[in-house]
Prior knowledge:
The complex is a heterodimer of chains A (253) and B (226).
Chain A lengths: L1 H10 L8 H28 L12 H29 L2 H32 L8 H20 L5 H29 L21 H47 L1
Chain B lengths: L1 H20 L1 H20 L11 H22 L6 H7 L4 H30 L8 H26 L5 H12 L1 H16 L4 H29 L3
Keywords (chain B): Cell inner membrane, Cell membrane, Cytochrome c-type biogenesis, Membrane, Transmembrane, Transmembrane helix, Transport
Membrane topology (chain B): Multi-pass membrane protein
Organism (chain B): Neobacillus kokaensis
Amino acid sequence: MSMNLKREKTALPVIPTESAGSANLSNLLFGATVVSMLVSLYFIFIYAAEEKTMYAAQKIFYFHVSSAWLAFMAFFVTFLFSILFLIKRKRIYDTYAYVSAEIGVVFTIIVLTTGPIWARSAWNTWWVWEPRLITTLILFFIYIAYIMIRQMDGVWDKKARLAAVFGIIGFADVPIVFFAIRWWQTKFHPIVFGEGPSQKGGGIEDTMLVALLVTITAFTILYSYLLRKGVSFEKMRLSVDQHKEKLRAKMGE
Amino acid sequence: MNLLRTAVLLAKKDLYSELKTKQILVTQIIFAALVIVVFSFAFDPANNTTKAVIPGVIWVIIVFAGILGLNRSFISEQRNDTMQGLLAAPMEAASIYLGKFLANFMMILVVEIISIPFLFLLFDFKFLGSLPYFLIVIFLGSFGFVAIGTFLAALAANSKSSEMLLPLLLFPITTPILIGVVQATRIILTNMEKLASALAWIQLITAYDVIFFVVCFLLIDYVLEV
C-alpha cells in the first residue's frame, strides 16, 4: 500500500495554473451557450409551428432529441479519449474521458425523463419496450458501471486504464444492443427522419426542422462548455491534492 | 501455439484444484437447483402457460449460476498473491485469460448438463424441438457469456467489492446475447416452424461471440498489467 501511495505522488504532474487565454475561451463558450440557448428558445416556442394533435406537448421533442444527441456525442468522445489514453497514457486524456462520460450520464437521465413525459401525451403510456428506449436505458446502465469503475480505490493510472478498457467495450456494445433489440421488438417509436418499413417517416415541418437544428447547435455548444468546465474542475482538484500533499510533507518534517 | 499450451495448462490447474475442493461447482449446482425451486413458486408448474417461460428460466439459471463461478475465478488468485506469480511467469496475459476462460466454460457446461434436464424433469416439459439446434444455442450462448464474463471478472477483480461490481458490468454488456439466446431457445423449444428466424438469432450470437472474443483478446493486456 505504501508503495502505491508513493507511486501516486510521483505520478502527479505539475499542473500549470489556468492561463488567461483559456479563461477567455471559457467565458466565450459560456456567452455562446447563453445566447444560443435563448435563440433556440425563441425558435422552439415562437418560430416553430405548433403540432396539430399534441399542441405544446410536442415542444419537449426539441429538448429530448438534442439531449439524446448530446449524450451520444459525449459517449463517443469518451470512447475516443479512452483509446487515446491507452495509446499515449497521458492523464489529461483520462480526465476528458471521465468528464465526458459524466456529462453523458446526466443528459441520458434528461432523455429518459423527457421521453416518458412526451410519451404520456403522445402514446398515452409512460414507457414502451421499444428499441431506442431500451438501448438508451442499457447505455445508461453501461455508463453508470463506467463511473463505478472510477470510484474504485487504488492508484489513478490503474483506474484510468480499467475505465478506458470498459469505455471501449461499452461503446462497441451499443450498436449490437440496438440491432438485437430492433430485431426483437416491433417498431413503435415515431421515425421522423429516413424511412421505416411501414411508416414512410412522419416527416417534419420546415419551421420545426430549423428549430431542431438550432437547438442541437445550442446543445453542442453547451456540451463543449461543460466539458471545458469539468476538465478545469478536475485539474483544480488535482492541484489541491498536490498542495495538500506538499503541506503534509512539510508538517512531517 | 505456445499461448494455447500454457492456456490449457492453466485451465487444467484451475479444474484440478476445483476437482479437489469441489467448492465452486457444488455451489453453482445447488444454486441452480434453488433458482428452479424459486421459479416453481413464481410460476405454477401445473399451469400450462408456464411452458412459455421455460426458455427464459434456462438462461436465468445459466446467468446466475455462471456469475458465481466468474466471481471466484480471479478472486481465488488473490489470496496467496498467485496472480502476481501468473503475471510474472514467462507467458502472455492473453494465455491467462484464455486459461481462465476455458476453466469457466467447462464448469458452466457441467452446470448446464446437470441443471437443464433437472428443470425439464421438474416442470414436466416435453422436449419437442430439435436437440442439435438446442445444444448449439446453449453452447454459443454460454461461450459468449463466459468470454465477456471472464474478461470483466479480471477487470472487476481490482476492486474491493468485485462481487457487487461484476454483475453491474456484465449484465448491460451481455444484453444482446441474452436477448438472442432467449429468442432462439424459445423458437427451438416451442415453435420449430420459425426455424429460419432462430437461425438468424444464432448468427447474431455467433457474430457477438467472435467480435467480443477478439476485442477481449486485444484488450486483456491492458487489464492484466502489473
